[in-house]
Amino acid sequence: MHAATDALWHGLRATLASSGFGDFPESLDRTRAHGTDFPGECIFTQTCGYPLFTTARGHFIVLGAPRYDVSGCTGSLHRSFIVVRNTTPVRALADLRGTRFAINESDSNSGMNLPRRLFAPLAQDGRFFGGTVVTGSHAASATLVAAGGADAAAIDCVTFALLERYRPAAVRTLRVIAETAATPTPPFVTSLRTSASQVEALRNALSAFTRDAVYAPIREALFLGGVDSCSDDAYEVVMDYERDARRLGYPLLA
Questions:
Q1: 165 & 82 share domain
Q2: Each residue of 188-211: pLDDT tens digit?
């Protein structure tokens, strides 16, 4: 997906340049750790909605919520799919009691927060699974489940669709048994230290990029249907699900 993602940035940068903002970086930087912006230098990236209120609080300004044309998305809302191997007899969530669950990141909305709320009513004394394992990515979680290293995982529906397209072997032997509740899609963001004029330019560029027919092939490659204007407040629902899980006695996905 590197080529498609690079093309997304090049399109945005060209749109920004045509509006008089020609001092943006020429290429994406894949060398820095994702999810935080301690130097205050991140001009454009995409992050998870849950860290906006937890591990990345005070780091980013939301530019917009992308709309993806994939199963599981409605407008700029998305959800996670609970996946198991095709060969397993598991048919319902309750059948996963005592099994091993793969989590992409401990601060992930789609991989941890949403399934935590989903499994909370089934937990007993704060536990449901026999164990959990953090894999580092949705793709790694899918691969681990397929290989039998874990029994189930929660895969963001957008990532699942991208895996079906670009890495079909990773999900060919998986089966979806349930879906989580929905939250806004992982937002496009910029550093909290980005100037107000640049923030406005970035938002305008995103809007123009999603309307320009020239960039339709790039958008299709990423399943990107558009970008909805929103603020950080739209993501407050992720914390509602955390509070719900705590109220139900399930503060940790365990």
A1: yes
A2: 999 999 999 999 999 999 999 999
Cα–Cα dist 170/139, whole Å: 7
**Residue 17: half-sphere exposure toward Cβ, Cα within 13 Å:** 11
For residue 192, give the amino acid letter.
L
Tell me how far apart the alpha carbons of residues 8 and 205 are, in angstroms, rounded to a whole number.
11
Task: Please report, as a single letter, which amino acid is at residue 163.
Answer: L
Tell me the two tokens of residue 205. 């560029």
- CA–CA separation, 225 and 65 (whole Å): 11
Q: Name the residue range of residue 156's domain.
A: 77-182+239-247
How many other C-beta atoms lie within 10 A of the C-beta of residue 1?
Answer: 12
Write the pLDDT tens digit of every residue in 128-177: 999 999 999 999 999 999 999 999 999 999 999 999 999 999 999 999 99
State pLDDT tens for residues 61-92: 999 999 999 999 999 999 999 999 999 999 99
| Ordered DSSP codes for 85-134 | ETTS---SGGGGTTSEEEES-TT-IIIIIHHHHHHGGG-BTTB-SSEEEE
For the CA atoms of 147, 153, 154, 157, what is the dihedral angle to 10 degrees? 20
- Is residue 109 within 8 A of residue 138, CB to CB? The reply is no
Q: What is the number of domains present in the chain?
A: 2
Rounded distance between C-alpha atoms, residue 165 and residue 77, angstroms = 21
253 in a structural domain:
no
Report the distance separating Cα 196 and Cα 205, nearest Å. 14
